């Protein structure tokens, strides 16, 4: 009996109970501190990631502004330069090219020679926008496209191969009767498709082009000096 009572008394020793409570509290404090530290790290990571995203947006906007400013400056310089090199009676596109539209008619070779004599060449179509512009300038006019050197291999007057075309339909170019030179048919119903191949000795009006800068400038409205 005494042994049992003594054992029970030892189990209820206040010192042991205090130590157990203290140990449990220390464990909870340590666990809570670790969780708090992890949450703090997560918050710091989230804040850092957010700052990186903001900096990325700022960088993208800044680069875009610089690009637009440079492009706008180049455009203004280009337009200023093209006005210097083009006569007053030439049509100036808001960009880096100007165009001469003849009133007389000549064959393709004579038409090109006239352009060369003017310090230009027959027009080369570099974009859909330029095609729409040129189509509106005249009906049945020569442009700088031919396959006279190699039948079926169309090249521009600067020697570059044809990559994008605007023939009037799937049957063109048909190459009938040695049709080795290309003309613009302005009255064709399609707003863009207007090319036709015809014999080079036909007489047509023609369009000369002077280019001051790369074709990227050819994307704005038509203006006059």
Automatic annotation (TrEMBL):
Keyword Disulfide bond: yes
Location of region: Disordered: 1-34
Biased composition (Polar residues): 17-34
Molecular function, one GO term: carbohydrate binding
Ranges of residues in domain C-type lectin: 94-209
Source organism superkingdom: Eukaryota
Alphabetic keyword roster: Disulfide bond, Lectin, Membrane, Transmembrane, Transmembrane helix
Ranges annotated as spanning the membrane: 41-59
Pfam families hit by this protein: Lectin_C (PF00059)
Matches recorded under PROSITE patterns: C_TYPE_LECTIN_1, C_TYPE_LECTIN_2
Keyword DNA damage: no
PANTHER family linked: MANNOSE, PHOSPHOLIPASE, LECTIN RECEPTOR RELATED (PTHR22803)
Designated name of the protein: C-type lectin domain-containing protein
Taxonomic lineage of the native organism: Eukaryota, Metazoa, Chordata, Craniata, Vertebrata
């Amino acid at each position: 009996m005494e042994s049992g009572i003594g054992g029970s008394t030892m189990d209820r020793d206040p010192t042991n109970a205090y130590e157990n409570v203290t140990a449990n509290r220390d464990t909870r404090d340590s666990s809570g501190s670790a969780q708090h530290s992890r949450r703090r790290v997560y918050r710091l990571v989230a804040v850092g990631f957010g700052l990186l995203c903001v900096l990325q947006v700022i960088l993208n906007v800044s680069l875009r502004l610089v690009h637009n400013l440079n492009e706008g400056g180049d455009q203004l310089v280009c337009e200023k330069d093209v006005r210097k090199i083009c006569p007053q009676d030439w049509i100036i596109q808001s960009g880096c090219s100007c165009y001469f539209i003849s009133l007389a008619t000549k064959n393709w070779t004579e038409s090109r020679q006239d352009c060369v004599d003017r310090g230009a060449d027959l027009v080369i179509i570099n974009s859909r926008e330029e095609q729409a512009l040129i189509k509106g300038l005249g009906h049945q006019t020569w442009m700088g496209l031919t396959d006279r050197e190699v039948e079926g291999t169309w090249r521009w007057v600067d020697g570059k191969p044809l990559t994008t075309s605007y023939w009037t339909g799937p049957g063109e170019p048909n190459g009938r009767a040695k049709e080795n030179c290309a003309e613009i048919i302005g009255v064709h119903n399609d707003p863009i498709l207007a090319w036709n191949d015809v014999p080079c000795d036909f007489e047509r009006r023609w369009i000369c082009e002077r280019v001051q800068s790369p074709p990227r400038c050819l994307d704005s409205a038509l203006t006059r000096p």
